[in-house]
Amino acid sequence: MPVIELRGIKRIYRMEGKQNESSVVVRALRGVDFSAEAGEFVSVMGPSGSGKSTLMNILGCLDKPSEGTYTLDGIETSKSDADTFAYIRNRKIGFVFQSFNLLARTTALENVELPLFYRSREKGEKREKGSARSRKERAVIALREVGLEKRMDHFPSQLSGGQQQRVAIARATVNDPAFILADEPTGNLDTGMTLEIMGLFQELNRRGKTIIMVTHEPELAAYTKRIITLRDGELVSDRPLTQPRNALDDLARWKRNALLAGEGQSAGLLRTAEKYAAKEAAS
Q1: FRET partner for 260 with CA separation of 20 to 30 A, picked from 5, 11, 59, 200?
Q2: In Å, how far are 26, 146, 164, 192 from 254, measured between CA atoms?
Q3: Residues whose CB falls within 8 Å of the CB of residue 251, separated by 6 or more in sequence, listed in order
Q4: pTM score, two decimals?
Q5: Topology (CATH) of 38-64+80-282
Q6: Residues 171-215 pLDDT 10s
Q7: DSSP 123-166
Q8: Cβ atoms of 212 and 181 closer than 8 Å
Q9: Domain ranges, ordered by start, for the chain
Q10: DSSP letter, residue 242
């Protein structure tokens, strides 16, 4: 059974016109069929206005389709009420956003604990003795898995952009969701940090995590295993990548090239300084 299965998904927005004008109908999605098996790494691409954001909101149970069905990990979500949606978002989906969305006044560890804290407050959830300690232990493990065992007590302002995104990824995985939904996850990062984050996603995927990533950058999609493309609200392409690029290999090459460029720049500055010193000595 697929982890994600969408059938005939349509999303129609009706925007009320001005006085004496008829309403405007916007068909953001026009009958999308899409499924993803456990362990897939899928990128969702398309130009502005293609329906990427609308599809992401439906996948993340932040919005409901106007027509069609969306089954997530065996749960048919299309007719779910608000409480069920909240349960699904907490238990089944790990969100990673471009802007990190970390709480500024809480530590990395406390940020990662938040989904577990909300889970413990759910109606009908059994309260276990030592749950606070258990939450902390699980958050510690999640941070270790993203390489931040030495930054757990740091606040977001004390972390680099790449480290903040690692905290966000740890927060997304701490509940062991059915899939990770990443929206332009490297949009605020430089090249080196982008490759580090994509390498982390690839490692999580190798461990069996299902990842859906929305991006407009073909360079990022090249690190995934499958690319679906939307245009005008329709799925126009769905192709597997048999040989995705390896982000950590590209990171190593990028660092090597940056080092060589830096050495070349340093050598040029040294030669300039030597010429200047020789000129001064001769005058």
Answers
A1: 200
A2: 43, 21, 21, 7
A3: 192, 195, 196, 199
A4: 0.88
A5: Rossmann fold (3.40.50)
A6: 999 999 999 999 999 999 999 999 999 999 999 999 999 999 999
A7: TTPPPPTTHHHHHHHHHHHHHHHTT-TT-TT--GGGS-HHHHHH
A8: yes
A9: 38-64+80-282
A10: S
